Amino acid sequence: MFIERNLTADKQVYCWAQPGPQASFAGKWCTKEAVIKAVSSLNLQTPKVWVRGDAAPLIDIEIVIAESGAPQVVFHRNANDASVKTGVTWVKVSISHIDDFAIAVAIVQ
Predict the structure, then answer these.
(1) DSSP state, residue 70
(2) What is the predicted pLDDT for the residue at 5?
């Protein structure tokens, strides 16, 4: 259920097809968490934009691979609303994962 709530069907297929699917799933999830933190801290005068806390599905934040091979963030529905409310104009992310470890960084402007 966790995977279905947080990743689109095509991202699930992508992760399962990787040599280390657990690391791939963890990398996608870490990136979404990093994006939430970055968006939330862009404009500290904006009222709280992520109101569901731990119950919020992260499926509205999609991590895709750009033509360059770099990860790219696409906002949908509630995540798009949150990014508009905070004034986000662009997002850059970096993901790294291996075996049991994953890390991600997001920068927004």
Answers:
(1) -
(2) 87
Residue 52: per-residue pLDDT: 67
Mean pLDDT by 10 residues, the chain (109 residues): 89 94 93 93 82 73 94 93 91 92 95
First-to-last alpha carbon distance for the chain, in angstroms, is: 33
Contact 88, 109 (CB under 8 A): yes
Q: CA-to-CA distance for 45 and 40, rounded, in angstroms?
A: 10
User: How far is Cα 2 from Cα 106, in angstroms, rounded to an integer?
Assistant: 22
Measured distance CA(85)–CA(93) in Å, rounded: 20
Supply the DSSP string of 43-71, one letter for each residue.
-TTSPPS--SGGG---TTEEEEE-TTS-E
Residues in the chain, overall count: 109
Longest dimension (CA), the chain: 43
